[in-house]
Amino acid sequence: MKKLIVGLVAVVVVVIAAVVIIPFVVPADTIKEQLLAQVREATGRDARIDGEFKFSVLPRAEFVARKVSFANAKGGKAKDMVTLDGLNVQVALFPLIGGNVEIDAFVLEKPVISLEIDRNGKPNWQFDGGKASGGKEAESKPEAGSGGLGLSGLKLGDVRLVDGKVSYSDARTGKTEVIDGINLSVSLPSLSSPMKADGSLVWNREKIALALGISNPNGFLGGNSTDFQTTIGASPVKLSFKGKASGGKTVKAGGALDLDVPSIRKLAAWAGSPLDAPGSGYGPLKIAGDVSVDGAKYAFRNARLSVDRISGNGEVAFDGSGRKPSVTAKLALGMLDLNPYLPPEKSAAGNGGAAKPAAGGGKTSSQEWSDDPIDLSGLRAADASLDLSVAGILIRKIRIGQSDLGVRLKDGVLVTDLKKMALYQGTGKARLMANGAGAVPSIAMDFDLAKFQANPFLKDAADFERLEGTANADMKVTATGRSQRELVKALNGGGKVTFLDGAIRGINLAAMVRNIATAFLDPKARETQKTDFAELGGTFTIRNGIVSNSDLLLKSPLLRLSGKGTVDLPKKFVNYRIEPKLVASTTGQGGSASAAGIKVPVIVSGPFDNVDYQPDLAGALGGIADAPAKAIESIKGMIPGQSGSGGSPSGGSAAPDPIKSLKGLFGR
């Protein structure tokens, strides 16, 4: 035993002597050459130290090198893959004997790292030199119960990175990224004690401040949950997280998150992907709530969300582990104003504003449909499922009340279901489908509305104020096209519309059949005229953007009205014929549609912004000539004292002459 102890002491003395003597016996240049030779053997590339070189082992191991460079791969853009103005490493020597690593200093001064991928896809950090291992290296595993790397003795003193720069380029895509102004300092008394890191960097001309705190780094790296907090702060985005996290093969975390983006558009532009979306939206974004992370899966609970003026709460989950990202969400929002996300409404060409009727009743050209391309390919980027309740929706001027929506996005097909909708004192439901799965976008719409007020709705939807009443409507339409114009030209479908207890503004059909001259030729009278009705409705079909109707029917006291014609949506032109019929009946809703009477046809034609009404006098006279007896009977039925009027006039007054009444019908 004594000899063994003596032998061990002798070995220790020899080792210490060698450590102390070698730096004085072996020149520094020799050590440097050997070091550089080892680098070349391991990587197949040259390294250089053109500045100061210092190596010592007492009282601590110290390595100092200045003007250090490491060659780039052959054919690389940059001459060197890595350059350093200075490298200073200081490690306490004697703790190493006990397996502890105490780094008193590790300082990198102005490191410049160039990461490149050539046209063949080979990265410059893949080295050709070095000895093949001949097999897989054994994976290092922490000892049972260690809870981490097993380097419990690791201590970091002055650990800094000063004014660094990292560039990345890919010759296959031409993409280049540069991060500079990198500064970082790390404080780690031990792996089992709190670590703090503070730093900053500059990317795309914006300075980003970074801070990180981990209560137990060894436990975190070993997959154990530990207190964790981090902040990232830049002008375009601010992010903070405080909670618990664990590392290992899969990063997991849970805690409170706050995200503040002053402008989504500016953030997207700064990130190199400008958001070329219409409208003025995509401004401020704020998210706060409880976040959980499990690898590529993220979830927000108790989330508070605001985008522009839209705010609400709910929960959102994101799963990026599959073939494409998927999102599920349940949100309750306040007023959902969609106008900031829509393109501006264009005024009529050459008018500088909304088109106005020309003086004297002339026609003006309607605003053209847009030829701007519609691209729905972005719908293929992800899948989504959203259940949304909103206090209201605003689209252009259309206001929708309390509504419940279900949105499903799958393989480029977006389906929006309005399960509940309050619309202009009525109710409704609708389904809208936007299909971006193919090369040409397509849409489909199916809606059913009941008991809503037509006048305010049509005014907000189409600036059309000439119809009022309680409406019921259903419609199914489809369209395919690359632009608004193509979609309108390809519109197909049909539906039914019914209006009850309403009026048609701008024309008094009952007065018209009494005095055509006043009804059609007096502009002031036309401004205040309207035709009241008890029932108005019909069905329609749409073929290639042409709306056709042949069964329009209006029932009103003393009046029946039928109509048929077309509305050319692509050309924004109306071509319609209305046949109002003066009848001897005061029954409106529920009355006979076939009651006999005098017909005075009206031709409705013109562009949407200047629809014109003109009497078809030839048609009216032709109807009287075909059945003069019926015409006279109809007139007599509406004249007191004549047949069908309900009795003779009181006081013995003479009954009006039916022939004179017929003349009065045409203003004679």
Overview of the structural elements:
Strand 8 and strand 9 form a beta hairpin. The protein is of the alpha+beta class and 668 residues long. It starts with a helix and ends with a helix. Helix content is 18%, strand content 46%. Helix 11 (617-626) crosses helix 12. The protein is built from 13 helices and 32 strands. It has a 32-stranded mixed beta sheet that branches. The protein is elongated, with a radius of gyration of 42 Å.
Helix content: 10-25%
How far apart the termini lie comes to 144 Å
Shape, per Cα inertia axes? elongated
Catalogue the unreliable spans: 12-19, 132-150, 348-365, 637-668
**Structural class, from helix and strand content?**
alpha+beta
The average pLDDT score comes to 79
Q: Count the strands? A: 32
Largest sheet: 32 strands, mixed
Strand-residue proportion: over 45%
How much is the radius of gyration in Å? Answer: 42 Å
